[in-house]
Amino acid sequence: MTLSLGCIADDYTGASDLANTLTRAGLRTVQTIGVPADDLDLPEVDAVVVSLKSRSIEASLAVSRSRSAEQWLRGRGAAHVLFKICSTFDSTDAGNIGPVMDALRADAGATIVLVTPAFPETGRTIYQGHLFVGSVPLHESPLKDHPLNPMRDSNLVRVLARQSTTAIGLLDLTVIARGADAVRDHLAVLAGKQVGAVIADAVFERDLETLGKVALDHRLSVGASGLGLGLARALVAAQTVTSNAADTAAAPPVGGLAACLAGSCSQATLRQITSAQASMPVLQLDPEQVLAGGDEARRALAWARPRLAQGPVLIASSSTPDQVAAVQARYGRDAAGHAIEQAMADIAQGLVEAGVRRLVVAGGETSGAVVDRLKIPGFLVGTEIAAGVPVLRAVGASAGDMLLALKSGNFGGATFFTDALDLMR
Amino acid sequence: MPRFAANLTMMFTEVPFLDRFGAAAQAGFTAVEFLFPYDHPADVIGERLHRHGLTQALFNLPPGRWPDEKGFAALPDRFDDLQHSLRTALPYAQATGVKRVHLMAGMASRGDHRAVEAFYKSVAFAAEFFAPHGLDVVLEPINPRNVPGYFLNDFAFARDLILELKIPNLKLQFDIYHCQILHGDVTTRLREMMPITGHIQIASIPSRQEPDGEELNYPFLFGELDRLGYGGFVGCEYNPRGRTTDGLGWFAPYAGARP
Asked: Which end of chain B is more exposed for a tag (fewer CB within 10 A), N or C?
């Protein structure tokens, strides 16, 4: 097996978005949680996205984790590695984009690295090196007040130059519009001036397709899901990848019992729970009981077990904004959140022990806690249930083959839970 | 039968650099090459090499500030650095007993006459520097897709320079992967340039992986090297598809070869 594309994502949400983008573009894609063990039994895939949490940690840690991810990917034959960053280039002048890029570039011996966080479908475009968020430059967007990485400079050539030890150049739209060979010629001129990385303009998806094609000549690139899309399109065009990606995760059927968990308190999830009541039994946990030390998880499992054989069940810790505010006021915001996530993780574990192999989880934090508890090292990404929410097939899970859907709060239509279960066979 | 050298910069990266010597020997290689040994003392490199009964086929002279710089030979203002790099490499050549070193040209344009003049001067100086030590200097054209902006990206230019300078220990490093991307017509070029070829390297095209598929028929080319009487090394400068040893099926008939 040859891995056509390796990706290192600096946060989990971004990794999921990239993995989903690659799958929709036709690449069979596995997303892993952290750097996988050496003996992870990887299915036949075209791309692997290693999810790190390295966006806002100390630069030296981000570098060492990214390097181990790169080594893991190269060890599986990844000819090209994309370092996946946020489409708003979130980083301080101390890093971490520059230091990680420098380290990966040195490891790869890469002469010149294409860097572009552009993702036109979400309104992130770059012109003359300046990043726009929708219609405004980055430094006028809400990102200027980001609590961890306030972005006060829209000129990414300058931003990256402050973080990197190499000279940073600009690959502007007039060159990219002339096509891949013009870009190659321009890179040669810049590399001859010892420019080690370029910020590449991109306004339309076709710009990212041109950049993806050129990037494949090299060992390393840096970008957001937009460049991932460009790379995927180039690989598909080169017929390096040929099979239908979304179907790969669907076959063979997993079977087994099915259940849903809802931890999110978003309007969308509350609507989805109401809708699910028409087609499955629903148990509402009492957050007061969870926080007061009552064994809500055991009660929920005792309720669920006899019902599972008849069909899927839904267990919800979701509450209305008023209820959430009341619990948070009494126990503190973090303690309340943590206790409920852990209860949901306990329930997920109990459900899997009871034979559940198809699990739908609503709520970003709850999803994270459940995946952690079930010790799932990675997922094969499947077809989309709703925009941005694919069916996932666990890879290397101790429970064996299982399907999951993990959804952040405000995703999906009213019938999300039944839509998901329809696709999870 | 060609004698293959494992490239320890690209192969056996599952283990730290110094352990790759043992891994290569274990896999049946009798020779190795790598890009740069300079992170380790010369005697340590020599000891690893000899402990495992290996022959050093090739390594590169210091490149400068890697990966921004890829040698100094074509950089007119860096002649001092070039001279210094030769002195840095010499103890490694002596500790390993290598018979050829690769002089990298650097990032410059062949359209710039100052760069061309600097390259001629550096090449002649390096060859004369190493001649008394019994070492060849080899020059390698590299394709501009992988290394845009590299000075030496044309086999004919390298050939003409070598034939013009007529320095006995100045040779061509013929990387078949680069040749196919740059020009194609590999067999004809091998036949033509064999008299000046001091080292050969291989990889699949276009993936730069094991020489067991894709664009070129390597078994034919290996046979051609025998027909041409090539007695040097063939460096395996490729990125393994997975674990290095899993991809050595193509190498099985050649394992253990000694001169």
From this structure: C
The answer to whether the CB of A154 falls within 8 A of the CB of A139 is: yes
Strand order in A130-133's β-sheet? A124-127, A130-133, A136-137
Strands A403-407 and A389-395: antiparallel
Q: Which amino acid is at A162?
A: R
Partner residue facing B66 (CB), from A106, A184, A191? A106
Inter-residue contact A107 to A70 (CB < 8 Å): yes
Facing residue for A109 by CB, picked from B66, B242, B243 = B66
B145 lies within 8 A of chain A by CB: yes
Residue A242 reports pLDDT greater than 70: no
Q: Rounded CA gap, A318 and A273, in Å?
A: 9
Check: CB of residue B257 under 8 Å from CB of residue B30: yes
Coil vs helix vs strand at A59: helix
The beta-carbon neighbor of A196 closest among B68, B146, B207 is: B68
Q: Give A333-376 pLDDT, tens digit per residue.
A: 778 888 888 999 999 999 999 999 999 999 888 888 899 999 99
Of B200, B21, B14, the C-alpha closest to A73 is B14
B76: which residues sit within 8 A by CB, 6+ positions away?
Answer: B114, B115, B117, B118
B216 in contact with chain A, both atoms CB, cutoff 8 A = no
Name the token pair of B163: 């034939």
Q: What is the pTM of this model?
A: 0.89
Is residue A268 classed as helix, strand or coil in its secondary structure? helix
Rounded Cα–Cα distance for residues B142 and B154 (Å): 8
For residue A132, the tally of other CB atoms under 10 A from its CB is 18
Tell which residue, B161, B157, B193, B160, has the closest CA to residue B174: B193
pLDDT digits (tens, 9 = 90+) for B170-180: 999 999 999 99
Listed residue (A51, A54, A67) closest to A13, CA to CA: A51
Interface probe, candidates B7, B68, B177, chain A, greatest A C-beta count within 10 A: B68
Question: Which residues 9-28 of B are in CB contact (within 8 Å) with A?
Answer: 13-14
Which tokens is B183 given? Answer: 């020009």
- What backbone phi and psi angles, to 5 degrees, belong to A261? -125, 135
Give the whole-angstrom CA distance, residue B37 versus residue B35. Answer: 7
Residue B61 DSSP symbol: P
Q: Name the percent of chain B in helix, strand, coil, to the closest 5.
A: 45, 15, 40
Phi, psi for B56 (deg, rounded to 5) = -85, 120
Is B210 one of the annotated active-site residues of the chain?
no
B237 is catalytic: yes
CA distances to B71, B166, B173, B229, B232 from B169, in Å: 19, 9, 12, 19, 14
The model's pLDDT over B120-161, given as tens digits with 9 standing for 90+, comes to: 999 999 999 999 999 999 999 999 999 999 999 999 999 999
| Cα–Cα distances in angstroms (integers) from residue A120 to residues A44, A174, A347, in the given order | 31, 17, 40
- Bond preceding residue B195 cis, omega within 30 of 0: no
Looking at residue A240, its pLDDT comes to 72
B167 part of contact set with chain A, CB < 8 Å:
no
A-B CB pairs within 8 A amount to: 73
Residue B182 has pLDDT above 60, yes or no: yes
**Cα–Cα distance between B102 and B60 in angstroms, integer?**
4
Provide the 3-class DSSP secondary structure of residue B202: strand
